[in-house]
Specification:
This protein has helices at about 15-25, 45-55, 70-80, 85-90, 125-135, 155-165, and strands at about 5, 30, 40-45, 65-70, 95-100, 115-120, 140-145, 170, 180-185, 190-195. By secondary structure, it is of the alpha/beta class. It has a ten-stranded mixed sheet, with helices on both faces. A hairpin with a 2-residue loop joins strand 9 (about 180-185) and strand 10. The radius of gyration is 16 Å and the shape is globular.
Length: about 210
Amino acid sequence: MAQYFQIHAENPQPRLVKQAAAIVRAGGVMAYPTDSSYALGCHVGDKAALERIQRIRRLDDRHNFTLVCRDLSELSLYARVTNADYRVLKANTPGPFTFILPATREVPRRLLSRRKTIGLRIPDHRFVQALLAQLQEPLMSVTLIMPGEALPLSDPQVIRERLEHEIDLVVDGGYCGLEPTTVIALDAGAVEIARQGKGTLAQATQAAPAGV
């Protein structure tokens, strides 16, 4: 049966953040809130946990997972980022966006698309940021949309009722929205909106630091 943590929206309890990180490190699957909708997450590179999520969502091997990162420095470890890309990322993170970028060799092969790209995201959510700081590495993640349904689950009590025997942790961060992230494909600064969701793209005006 899944554990159930009620977190403070503004000040997530450190004790619960540490416990959630321990569950993830041990191979657990969790449902957690983000700045767009609830998602399913697990330890990066954990094949067994990823396969559990695939069974819950009834996903095939072609469905792309997202790496949820703490900041731009972590994101750049997993994606090749040009100066022009960096300006777009800097102007729009953290926020409700998933960026599709060329993957580096740090990305587990099972997460790569056929084009050798990876979806990366930096959510503007205090629990997620606290959890990532505790983990010191990204989460593998996918939106919590159940098979045959068009919208993600948004009520943590409903998530608990439906998934308490299939996952290890439900993090109750209150009601989440129903809009998914906006998906942005980046190619040397060229922007393609692959899916319009919650995020509205801001103009990139900041210069990239040397060496990015």
